[in-house]
Amino acid sequence: MKVLITGGAGFIGAHAANELLANGYTVRALDSLVPQVHGPERKRPPYLSGEVELIVADIRNTEALTRALKGADAVIHLVSLVGVGQSMYQMDEYTSVNNLGTAALLQTLSKSPVARLVVASSMSIYGEGLYVDEKGHAATPVERTLEQLKLSDWEARDEHGARLTPAPTPESKSPSLASVYALSKFDQERMCLMVGRAYHIPAVALRFFNTYGPFQALSNPYTGVLSNFAARVLNGRAPLIFEDGLQKRDFVSVYDVARACRLALEKPEAAGLAINISSGLPMTVSDVATRTIRALGRPDIEPDITGKYRTGDIRHCFADISLARRTLGWEPHVLLEQGLEDLAAWLTGQTAVDHGVEARAELAARGLMV
Fold this sequence. Notes:
The chain is an alpha/beta fold and about 375 residues long. The protein is built from 13 helices and 15 strands.
């Protein structure tokens, strides 16, 4: 089977390619090699397997899309600009690449359907994760106000002001879209599932939580939390943590994500579903920063808990992964400690340009960071 991976030269795309190649697939990648991820040279990344045929083009280029899809039996659609904060001041570009790019792909597929379409969705569509009240009943928190945040009152509360307890978030939780990025990911997911049904293309949406591992773009300030922490530590600087550091997240190894992509191609029962992919093991952001520092061998550095807040940030969100277990037969295999050791080994000799200062200045200049 020949699989086209859009965004196939990126972090997750390269790992998905390795997973597919190891299991007998032929892989073609379509990627525009955007400078924010691949640097100004826009060269084929050294980590991308030589067995992958790479087409360098924009997904919105119909001619290139048609050429990339020729002979493809399935598509893993990973093309996406990534960055909650950046999406709030580059709204046109995020909407164009993520939404319009997906529409261009689906328009082409409507004329030449494939046997399976897998699209990368995101935990960001949930906004706040699932919460329960003191009686254990599901409860919807009210949006945290600017006044609340200025008082460093970080926790989610109900309409009566009572503090709520976070719980594992299932796919049935209603979306709560807190950024243009989240909106675009929801649009990508729903378009693929909707058009897939209409054109008889079995489609699966994988809702990735915080993904980490080798090949992350360390100099991109809008990539994953762990790579941002690692970039700071590699430059001898403290990881910067917003709020009080006690917000809970869920982290998943890119190797586990790549395996989920392959299983989503193979399991008939997954068609038409949106499925959480994560470890199912919540931990605080402060704890993750400390573990990253330890893995990189810099005991002289401590996390910098800033007490600041960014527009679009949420308090707690971690996954219920029971649907992935049932439909994909998937389990996370890589524990965070093992994954951080692997990441640290890859980071040896890597260069990370810390652009975090510029990114935060952009947010502050627009009133998007308190």
